[in-house]
Specification:
48% helix; 21 helices; globular
């Protein structure tokens, strides 16, 4: 591959197609059009099980998996645009979707981790590689192998007892590398497990004390990928890159364009982290970099909402450090101002945090109005902040292809204008015995239900424009459940006000801080993305 993009041989992105939102072929082509025009020359599709594997009918079943024909079509289109399409699969952990099927029980060690050392595991991986060899023209494949925290602690332990887990990891890697070698493939893998096994679970530990022979034992057709999305300090990236170089030369770097914490993008933080990371990559001679767009917990955020981050990363990789110039070029390229597009971050809501990321728009949407598990994060005035954000989004008057992104976020903020503090207001009025205030709140419940219906439609249209239909049933369950719960709480208040019930048990219960601080409430926004832990403390 020819040198381009300044110091970088590969400048790419990675789209998560494994957390319910499998991007349609048409949307992938649109992404290729945009990114190739910006100077990117590589794309990874992250597919844990969402691709066809011959002889494995349950692999990706009902998950919107790509057929071989679809993969070949995308590969051909990428090639026509001068872009390398690299498959990104999993050959150790993150295979929870197949673990549910009885057919794969013999393949599993514990939870979502494959059973290393078992011949059936390598037969399955062999079939994965057959799909890759048939559908992709790139001679590289990303084999995953990250975050296998319980590796060797389940059935593997029953069979082999307490072994050196680093040794077991290397043995597994060498067997996978042999399979790749048979297909003429070079492999790249996330590096974190070597650090975690040496440092008691920690990844970002440059002084982890990894054994000197580990690098020598990594197969010659395997390269490491250092992933880090969390820091704005170039020194941290620098230390970790130097640490990787001491293990094996040629480390790739993966940054993050934050699409995975709720409905809103986090362009502002992504840009700060990207700038710091690229500075260290340039100083350490890294030649292969890409930026991930994950979809944790349901993939609510549009990847296209990260266009400012995507544009900034490309400009910065090509040597442009002038942010004012980057903003001007963005508007010229996309026909909308930088400041207008950044409104998708919801900067006038509680979502902005100078030193990190929070996702109030998600947890306040699903925060139960009676239990109020996340009420302890509210300082007051959040509803007004979301109203201001909705007004700003409406003023953009976005036309054309990006209008749907603004409509979805505007409708979400409109819901939160009424709902964000609804539980706090309900509890305060109930505990004060103020039935007049509770009666007035009934209208807020009704209006919230009405606005939820509007938001649902705009969000559904956004999903249908970008993703396959499979996976949206999760959003139906969540948003449909929220609407039903709002109706239930409203009717409970109506029954209480009518004297049909003498009390509301949830509102009689003293509230505790969800982080475990008892009655001490932080009153600060947080990052909390797990839907099932937001909506209830009961079992789902």
């Amino acid at each position: 591959m020819e040198e381009r993009n300044g110091a970088f041989r590969r400048l790419g992105t990675m789209i998560d197609c494994s957390r319910n939102a499998v991007m349609t072929v048409g949307a992938v082509k649109k992404w290729i059009d945009i990114t190739s025009d910006l100077g990117y020359n590589m794309l990874m599709l992250y597919t844990e099980d969402t691709y066809e594997v011959t002889g494995e009918p349950y692999f990706g079943y009902a998950r919107g998996r790509y057929s071989k024909e679809e993969l070949k079509e995308v590969n051909a289109y990428a090639s026509s645009k001068g872009m390398e399409l690299i498959p990104c699969i999993q050959t150790l952990a993150h295979l929870n979707a197949i673990a549910r099927w009885p057919e794969y029980a013999p393949h599993m060690d514990v939870q979502d981790i494959l059973l290393a050392g078992d011949q059936r595991t390598y037969e399955l991986i062999g079939r994965m590689f057959e799909t890759i060899a048939q559908c992709f023209s790139s001679k590289y494949v990303h084999i995953g192998m990250d975050e296998a925290h319980l590796f060797g602690r389940g059935r593997f332990y029953d069979l082999h007892k307490d072994v050196d887990r680093t040794e077991a990891m290397l043995e597994h890697l060498n067997k996978v590398a042999d399979i790749g070698r048979k297909h003429g493939l070079s492999l790249v893998m996330w590096s974190d497990m070597f650090y975690r096994l040496a440092a008691g679970g920690a990844y970002y530990a440059a002084d982890a004390g990894i054994r000197e022979d580990v690098g020598q034992r990594i197969p010659d057709n395997v390269e490491l990928v250092y992933w880090d999305y969390y820091s704005v300090d170039p020194a941290r990236y620098d230390k970790m890159l130097k640490s990787h170089a001491s293990i094996k030369a040629g480390t790739w770097f993966a940054g993050g364009l934050w699409s995975w914490e709720g409905f809103a993008p986090h362009n502002a933080f992504s840009i700060r982290a990207t700038g710091a990371a690229l500075e260290a990559c340039e100083e350490n001679g890294v030649t292969d970099i890409f930026f991930t767009l994950w979809g944790d917990d349901g993939a609510e955020c549009s990847r296209f909402a990260l266009l400012p981050s995507l544009f900034y990363a490309a400009q910065r990789a090509q040597g442009n450090r002038d942010e004012a110039d980057i903003r001007q070029k963005f508007e010229k390229k996309f026909g909308i101002s930088w400041d207008a597009f950044i409104l998708l971050d919801l900067p006038y809501s509680p979502n902005q945090k100078p030193d990190g990321v929070v996702d109030c728009e998600k947890y306040l949407l699903y925060n139960d109005p009676f239990q109020g598990l996340l009420d302890s994060t509210l300082a007051g005035g959040e509803g007004a902040q979301f109203a201001r954000c909705a007004e700003a989004l409406e003023r953009v008057q976005a036309e054309g292809e990006w209008a749907y992104l603004f409509r979805t976020q505007q409708d979400l903020c409109s819901v939160l204008e009424r709902k964000a503090e609804l539980g706090v207001r309900t509890r305060a009025a109930y505990q004060a015995g103020d039935k007049e205030a509770l009666t007035a709140l009934i209208l807020d419940y009704q209006e919230t239900e009405s606005r939820l219906a509007v938001f649902y439609e705009s969000f559904r249209r956004q999903w249908d424009q970008e993703n396959k239909r499979s996976g949206f049933e999760v959003q139906d369950i969540r948003l449909g459940g929220l609407r039903q719960r709002m109706e239930h709480c409203r009717k409970t208040l109506e029954r209480y006000l009518a004297g049909e019930i003498g009390s509301i048990q949830e509102l009689d219960e003293p509230q505790l801080d969800f982080r475990g601080n008892g009655r001490e409430f932080s009153r600060q926004p947080v990052l909390f993305n797990a839907w099932k832990e937001i909506v209830t403390v009961n079992t789902l």
